[in-house]
Amino acid sequence: MIVTTESKNRQGPATLRPGYKWELLILLRFAFFLNQADRQIFSVDLPLIKAELKLTDGELGLVASALVWTYGVTRSDSRLYR
């Protein structure tokens, strides 16, 4: 079996728009903002969660602790790969 490739069908390296670095920076900052806002809004929602699920203060503390511990473990794990 003979395989031929024609040079006219090959595509060159991808060309990037001139401002792609700024667009990427803006998108990353927006993602960082959403991450921080998501963590901060949890403390505001705790009374609503407590009322809706009829949790005691101790149970609510366990829910909040589970979130903080999970975030802490996953956050510290990400530092190993820098």
Summary, kept brief:
By secondary structure, this protein is mainly alpha-helical.
Secondary structure blueprint with pairings:
Blueprint: H1 20-53, H2 57-78
What does this structure look like?
The protein has 82 residues and is mainly alpha-helical. It has a domain at 41-77. Helices cover 68% and strands 0% of the residues. It contains 2 helices and no strands. The chain has helices spanning 20-53, 57-78. The longest helix has 34 residues, at 20-53. The protein is elongated, with a radius of gyration of 24 Å. The two termini are 47 Å apart. The model has no long low-confidence stretch (mean pLDDT 80).
Order of helices and strands: HH
Residue ranges: pLDDT <50 for 5 or more in a row?
A: none
User: Gyration radius, to the nearest Å?
Assistant: 24 Å
Shape: elongated
Structural category is mainly alpha
Annotation field: number of helices: 2
In percent, how helical is the residue content? 55-70%
